[in-house]
Amino acid sequence: MSEREQPDRLYGLLAVFTDPDALLCATRQMRAAGYRELEGHTPFPVEGLDDALGFEESRLPFIALAGGILGGSGGLLMQWYLNAYDYPINVGGRPLDAWPAFAVPAFETSVLGAVLAVVGAMLWLNGLPRLHHPLFDAPSYRRVSLDRFCLSVRREDPCFDREATARLLEGLGASVVEEVPA
Predict the structure, then answer these.
(1) Residue 2 pLDDT
(2) Sheet harboring 176-181: ordered strands across?
């Protein structure tokens, strides 16, 4: 029976490092060894960790653009419908569908649409709201917000082998390597 088919529930391994340079070096070496399901946990931003983890470009700019276009066109359509069709009031012979008058509210609805799309996408892409994560139960993880730097390797990684991965992490300078139950 392979490692992924075993009945025990394992989220992965958590390696604890005492300084950010050791974490960054270990992350680069793990990526070079073929590991892809890695996540870095630090008390402050570490320069270069996102590149070492292999983060891709964000899709949020495109989502913001789509939300802005939908919000702006929805605002224009709403104003046209209300002024020209649903409740037309002819004031001084002016046209009912005066598009320049609709520009400022349409801009505001495009900004609102972009903001709502980005906030919704951010929550969805980050898997939020998530009230519990398996790493929260790991004893070493409690100090990550204070002074420790952790690298987690998920079990779903194609290169993951419980013993070999733990030995590799210890060889890369991890002060503690512990198993995280799912």
Answers:
(1) 52
(2) 38-41, 149-154, 10-17, 176-181
